[in-house]
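User: quick one, sequence for these tokens?
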């Protein structure tokens, strides 16, 4: 929560997190499948009850937040949510329903099956990103025609963005041709995870619409220098 609060305090209104569900269905905003790497506890999240996970401290000090904590702490923020496991799908749908956050989220996953299952579980249209097959189709479409009709249908059906890395091994994924193709189809392009200011500038020069980073201060400095930093207006003090 300290990291999210820092980003919001800087003026960010788009946040990104991953979600896992505990054994008893609590949905946590946490990247890893286990507690071992980043906390003072150990064990697989899916095998532990929330009461045990709640005792873990990130870097020895910070508790692991529930997704509802983020949604309720910053009601004006938009959240990009990466569904990391099948067991997180129904708890995610329950949280979205409980908080009414349908218009504040974008659901993504590295699994086409998890994305499809999440759409079904949520039960009404929400923003989702392209899955791996859609990303591959977009990459091919940036070289040759033939996939644009499929991608245009996905865009109309609530898949208005593609989220990709700059590179995949030696393959340059994020290119000007891909960005141009995505924009022609009405899709935004979000790139992850970019921590180098020079790479941030290169991608912004290509026209990408979003940059995911762990270095939020560095990204803000890049956007300020480019005249592209537009934080939300704050109400005057009463």
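Assistant:
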């Amino acid at each position: 929560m300290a990291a999210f609060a820092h980003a919001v305090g800087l003026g960010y209104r788009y946040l990104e997190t991953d979600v896992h569900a505990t054994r008893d269905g609590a949905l946590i905003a946490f990247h890893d499948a286990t507690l071992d790497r980043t906390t003072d506890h150990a064990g697989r999240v899916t095998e532990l009850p929330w009461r045990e996970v709640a005792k873990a401290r990130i870097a020895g000090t910070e508790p692991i937040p529930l997704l509802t904590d983020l949604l309720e702490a910053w009601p004006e923020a938009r959240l990009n949510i990466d569904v990391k496991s099948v067991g997180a799908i129904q708890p995610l749908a329950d949280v979205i329903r409980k908080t009414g956050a349908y218009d504040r989220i974008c659901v993504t996953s590295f699994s086409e099956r998890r994305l499809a299952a999440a759409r079904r579980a949520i039960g009404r249209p929400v923003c989702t990103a392209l899955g791996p097959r859609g990303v591959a189709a977009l990459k091919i479409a940036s070289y040759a025609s033939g996939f644009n009709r499929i991608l245009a249908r996905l865009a109309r059906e609530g898949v208005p963005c593609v989220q990709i890395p700059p590179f995949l091994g030696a393959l340059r994924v994020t290119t000007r041709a891909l960005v141009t193709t995505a924009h022609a189809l009405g899709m935004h392009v979000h790139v992850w995870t970019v921590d180098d200011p020079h790479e941030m500038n290169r991608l912004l020069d290509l026209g990408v619409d979003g940059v995911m980073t762990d270095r939020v201060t560095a990204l803000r400095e890049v956007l300020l220098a480019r005249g592209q930093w537009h934080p939300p207006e704050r109400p005057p003090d009463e």
